Amino acid sequence: MSKPEKRRPWFFALWAGVALAALFVVYVLLLIPLTPGIRDLKQARAARATAIVSADGKELASFDQGLQERVPLDKISPHVIAALIATEDHRFYEHHGIDFTRVGGAVFHTLLGDAQGGSTITQQLARNMFPEEIGRSRNINRKLKEMITALKIEATYSKPEILEAYLNTVPFLYNTFGIEMAARTYFDKSALQLDILESATLVGMLKGTSYYNPVGNAGRSVQRRNVVLGQMRKHELFSEARYQSLLKKPLRVHFARQAERSSTDTHFTAFVRKWLIQWADENDYNLQLDGLVVHTTLDFGLQSAAMRAVERQGRALQAIADTEWSQHSTYSATSTSAYGETREGAPSFAYFWQSHPDYADAIVRESRDYRKAVEGGEEAAVAFKRLKADRHFIAQLHAAKTRLEAGMVALDPASGQIKAWVGSRNFQREQFDHVSQAARQPGSTFKPIVYGAALEKGFLPERPYRDAVLDIKAADGSVWRPTDMSGSTGNMMTMRDGLVYSKNTITAQVMQDVGLPPIVKLARGLGVRQSKLASVPSLALGTSPVTLLEMVNAYASIAAEGEYRKPVFVTSITDRSGKVVANFEPEKAERAMSAESAGKLIDMMRGVVNRGTGTGVRYRFGINGDVAGKTGTTQNNADGWFILMHPNLVTGAWVGFNDTRVTMRSNYWGQGGHNAVLLVGDFVRNALDSGKLDATALLPGGKRAPVARPTVEEDVSEEASDLQQDGVAPAPTPPPMQDEQDEPPEPAEPASAPTQAPAPNEGGG
């Protein structure tokens, strides 16, 4: 107060500034012990990988084998280093961890409304190495910790070591870390081989990996790449002419996602991984370091039972296929154990390859080795002859083509939660997922949707139809004449029995009376929402390929009295301390069909397992509870399906070969009621015995009365028919499978990929 009055504000401001500066210094000094120390920098950080666990807490898989490969600085393209320094920190070699000039500029521009970052490469490295210690929130506290850690890093490492550490830890999308994995993922080459444009593209991603992703956002990626090139030109790393030339170059990405599977992985955990990687990218989490725990819906006991069932019954069915195709004359039995006994010494599939020479040649020409040889300049005829003579190559090719595959999935109809998921017989050998990826013709498992649409229209289960072959005209003028291999009686048959005995003739007439639009609408409502459904008459017999997950979801909607629930596979995510960081509430159920119609349809499907094509689940496995379901078989026995509805669980299985030109030889074992039923029956029997399922539970409309269980096989079979529409050219087929003892079956439809395209001449019985 002794100062002149006019000078007092200046003195107050001065002392206030000094006080604030002192407080700031004290605060920084307090933060120093809270940031990583020199010892932390020199030792490997005790990271914890994200874990995927079952509903009962059993670990299913983890991210401890992430996508990262460290490389020395001399194994990284100089273009990457030049682009990085020019764009992210052009005074990198001049500062000691903090660029105060850049910080001041960033503060000035931010105050003017143009937010800018002032982090150096060293600060970014600090963030990458210690995300938990430094924090994720955008505030002054995090920035100060980042700066302090950057100063410690600069005092510990040399500039080249800092660059090397940064380029090996910087995160990219798809759970990739470091420039080496990024180079492989986006350009299918090593970091040393990156050219100037590729280097600029990857460095440009660092501003926002998702926003500037060259795979999903090519336009933005090119713009950002050109900004990086502009920075390089600004710092005179190349001439103006070179710069203008580079700007005109297109973006050329060779995306090749890297494998990231551990020995504990399954198709379910792989499915969760794919979703989780995107979630982590969007929410700024490091799946390798942050120790998250992903809580899934999978029941560990049911999953173990499902894996055993697929392995055991898949092996039995493989023995059947091997034996039946081993020699000219076939061995026929209805017991799986009988085939296991005769398999010893029999050359698996020997007769198949003898009777299919054209197919044997075709798969050689379709092989990767053949294409690679021809693309490399070898004469096609020479390459073919060389590969045909390579016994080891041919043996491997034949083994892969004749390996029976399977998929099985189980859902809780009340919640939509996935309880078991097996995508193939062996995940380590076959990563292609036959639950969510393989689109196959569902055959007669689609028929309940046709009958459900009829019930919704007011038809009664006892509505009569004549079992006769009729010509049905399609919208394009073509004629469809569906038949049953077992023939037509000409007698009247109820709609209920048409479903129970899987009659194509009856189903086609129901479809004609209902119309295609209501059938497609109901299929979508129940859960077939990803696959395309061709609006052609043969859709009623299951000719449009769908996934197993979609079909089981549709049956779960029926079991839930017509309410659709989106499949749920993750319930919550917690951090390493157990705090919930994300909760995933199930979506509200949608009404797909009336509860009354669903109840009638369930009752019709009870008949399938009590006296129709699905009785095998009762007489083979002794399942006495209130269950309902449907079998499915596509033309030439290419696909076998069975879906069973229990009040607590809906389970479906698919059986077949990835290449549909290879099929089960006998009509008996080619039917879903004889092959896929083995997987479902084995699994459900185990679930009942273990108490996982309530044997006394009832489906809607069920009664607490003893269910008559067949003790011997009922003589009810389903066989796919030739459903070719007149005026539609059939697809080319391999030679028919000749057999002296049996009538030669219809030729199988060719396919060179695991998925199967719709064909108007295929349907399930």
The computed structural class is alpha+beta
* Approximate strand percentage: 5-15%
Number of strands: 18
The biggest sheet, with number of strands, parallel, antiparallel or mixed sense and barrel status, is: 5 strands, mixed
How widely separated are the two ends? 102 Å
Quick one: overall form?
elongated
Q: What helical percentage do the residues reach?
A: 40-55%
Indicate the radius of gyration in whole angstroms: 32 Å
As laid out across the biggest beta sheet, the strand order is: 2-1-5-13-14
Low-confidence stretches: 42-47, 721-765
Number of helices: 28
Mean pLDDT: 85
Give structural notes.
It contains 28 helices and 18 strands. It is α+β, with helices and mostly antiparallel strands. Helix 5 (121-129) crosses helix 8 (159-169), helix 10 packs across helix 11 and helix 21 (447-456) runs antiparallel to helix 26. Strand 13 (570-574) and strand 14 (580-583) form a beta hairpin. It is elongated, with a radius of gyration of 32 Å. The termini are far apart. Helix content is 41%, strand content 10%. The strands form six sheets. Strands 2-1-5-13-14 form a five-stranded mixed beta sheet, with no helix packed on it. A five-stranded antiparallel beta sheet has the order 7-6-18-17-16, with helices on both faces. Strands 3-4 form a two-stranded parallel ribbon. The longest helix has 25 residues, at 300-324. Residues 42-47 and 721-765 have low confidence and may be disordered.
